[in-house]
Amino acid sequence: MRKNKASSTARLITRCMLFLHYEGSTLSHEANIKLWLSCLKSYGSSPDLLAYCIRFKPVRLIIRIIQSLILPNLIYHYGLRKQMIRNAIERHLRNHQVDHFIHLGAGFDTYSQDVSGMGTTIRCMEMDHPATQEVKRRALEESGIKSQEVEFLPVDLTETGSFKCNTRKQSLIVAEGLFMYFSPSRLQSLLYEIRQNTSSCFLIFTFIDKNRGQPDFFENSPLINLYLRYHQEPFQWGISSEDMESFLNQNGFSMIEILDPSESLSQLLDRPISRRIKEKICIARSLE
Q1: How far apart are CA 283 and CA 253, in angstroms?
Q2: What's CA 14's distance to the chain center, in Å?
Q3: Are 105 and 178 in contact (CB under 8 A)?
Q4: Where are the beta strands (DSSP E) in 91-179?
Q5: 22: Cα within 13 Å, side-chain hemisphere
Q6: I want to staple 40 with a disulfide (CB 3.0 to 4.6 A). Which of 51, 181, 227, 282 is the partner?
Q7: What is the pLDDT of residue 272?
């Protein structure tokens, strides 16, 4: 990520969620539309033309055609990923005591706002790059959405020692679309920092597969790699599902389960998916 620029990936995913909204998909929550539009408006100095154009069906048809040629089902993948994480958060809050909810690399997502709006006493925090977080805070203010219950901590999580919550309490931490941007050594040090700063922690995070020693989001697509290099957001870490349990144990966590959005996508579309996006969701807990 460029040091003084908000995350381009956060903007891309927000556009995808708006696309699903205009398509009438249940994967996009009506309550979040106002914030998403405001984030895109606050992102740059000029209006987001694409966010406006996707209101129109012919434009969405063109986008679907382009998507099918470059990266099939990407938009639905993002929608399903968020739905599955949201369901995992709600399930955990029903079944476990949580004192702190911490969203790492929150982007323009609304998990913290949703949890704080449940009327609980859970302390909600977002830790994100200062430039990205400033866009979101400005959008919340301009759209009139209350977020006093959410504590914003502007930090560069790629820097060692940046996780300094000092909660020492039962925590639920979400890191969606984040860990793949960290070097293996930084990810290990971050997991150590999390364990040191929480007494007990449940962790929900996404990861991408590894192919021939390299992180592989979708068949090592050269177009994806070019896009990420241009925006200075290259993938640095990937791992196979088979190696995940061992990796977590070595870093002070135990694996609970792995969820695969591509399996749900096949059910949603009612057809087999031959070319799958290789990103999954892992749920883990810190070892005592």
Answers
A1: 10
A2: 11
A3: yes
A4: 100-104, 123-128, 150-154, 170-175
A5: 21
A6: 51
A7: 76
Give the whole-angstrom CA distance, residue 132 versus residue 15.
15
Cβ–Cβ < 8 Å for 177, 233: no
What are the residue ranges spanned by the domains of the chain? Answer: 83-286
Please say if the pLDDT value at position 218 is more than 80: no
- Asked if the model's pLDDT at residue 59 lies above 70, the reply is yes
**30, burial (CB in 10 Å: exposed 0-12, middle 13-18, buried 19+):** exposed
- What 3-state class would DSSP assign to 216? strand
Identify the CA nearest to 282 among candidates 252, 251, 240, 250. 240
Task: List, in sequence order, the alpha helices (H) in 44-199.
Answer: 49-53, 57-70, 74-95, 111-116, 130-143, 184-197
Q: What CA–CA distances, in Å, run from 69 to 66, 77, 95, 127?
A: 5, 16, 42, 35
**Which pLDDT value is given to residue 91?**
95
Which of 93, 91, 114, 104 shows the shortest CA–CA distance to 29? 114
- Interatomic CA distance for residues 112 and 35, integer angstroms: 13
Cβ distance 228 to 7 under 8 Å? no
Name the residue among 115, 72, 267 with its Cα closest to residue 204. Answer: 115
Please, which pLDDT band fits residue 230 given cuts at 50, 70 and 90? low
Global model pTM greater than 0.85? yes
| CA atoms of 97 and 90, how far apart (whole Å) | 12
